[in-house]
Amino acid sequence: MHIPDGYLGPVTCGFFYAVMIPVWTAASNAVRKTLKARQVPVLAVGAAFSFVIMMFNVPIPGGTTGHAVGGVLIAILLGPWAGCIAVTVALAIQALLFGDGGITAFGANCFNMAFAMPFSGYYIYRMLTRKTPPASPRRVFAAGIAAYLGINLAAFLAGLEFGLQPLLHHTPNGQSLYCPYGLKVAIPVMLGEHLLVFGWIEAVITALAVKYLQRKPEIFPESGAGS
Amino acid sequence: MKTLAKIWIFIGILAILSPLGIWLPEHFNSKAAWGEWDVGEVSKASGYRPAGMDNIAGFWKAPFPDYNFEGWEDKTLPYSGLAYIISAAAGILSAAVIILLLGKFLSAKGPRGNKGLDGTDE
User: Fold this and answer.
1) A60 pLDDT above the threshold of 80
2) What's the burial of A117, exposed, middle or buried (CB within 10 Å: 0-12/13-18/19+)?
3) What does the pLDDT read at residue B109?
4) B118 — contact with chain A (CB < 8 Å)?
């Protein structure tokens, strides 16, 4: 889901930077106001986890590969703004050092995986666990569902961004200047592979982590969801 | 042992196991993630070379593309796996250090403990 440089035209790249700059500013302010100093090491381990879990490429035999992101898990533990910061840092290291995801596409990649994913997952989890005690098994399932839906939203958005390119930028004879695949290919592929395979991996990892952490009050939020 | 220390050990184990992320796709004959091919591959697959891609695709030269070292691109698993583990360790360390520095920066006037990073009580 790491869109490389070259697949998105200048309009799309500029648009998502323009969206993400205020989001990053708001995230810094929100984290300063709500994150407790003792939670900073948890955020550090969250960013490290997000970085390393994305290196575990899972194959669809004979087909493509994909991976989990960890964005919903961090949002559940520390809140969606903290999740945004952690995944942004992981994506920045991947793009700058390892060429995984583009620099021009960084705004779009962050919008998908560091904004849409942790926020959607966080609010779905909150909705499903209202008035549920922290140790409730319901939280494990809610975390899985939230992670599944969150990563699929991110995959859908990536498909949308890929698929818009032939419409936005093309030569007179209809050849795309950037990603050559239109909406009818990009969205079904990106969404399909995550609905069928990679979403489940994200769901299982998030659910297991919540199951383990929900009995650790020093890490798991007392209200059951980071605020 | 404190939970956080256990999680760090778990992250270290993930780094050591990370070559699974290249071995499994090779073993199951899977190709690159959809939409992450280089310009040559995407041109072959779509039947034409999108005219704008080359200009932007070379925008940034990452020092360790594909979590590998320069000159090791053609080497197979023991080497690529080692490069992958070192990359994982470097990435984990950078992520943690950046967040800790951000935490310091955001909490310049904040004391430690249960207070918020801006120094106010909840």
Assistant:
1) yes
2) buried
3) 47
4) yes
Nearest chain B Cα distance for residue A19, angstroms: 21
Tell me the ipTM for this assembly: 0.93
Residue B77 confidence (pLDDT): 73
- At residue A64, the pLDDT reads 93
Which domains are delineated in chain A?
10-213 (1.10.1760.20)
A residues 45-84 closer than 8 Å to B (CB) = 45-53, 55-67
Which tokens is B13 given? 């184990």
Length of chain A: 227
3-state SS class at B47: coil
- List the one residue out of B54, B69, B80 whose CA is nearest residue A5: B54
Confidence of residue A50 (pLDDT cuts 50, 70, 90): very high
Contacts of A169 in chain B (CB under 8 A): 52
Cβ neighbours, 10 Å, residue A106: 25
Give the integer Cα–Cα distance in Å for B73 and A172: 38
pTM: 0.94
In this prediction, residue B114 carries a pLDDT of 56
Is A184 in CB contact (< 8 Å) with chain B? no
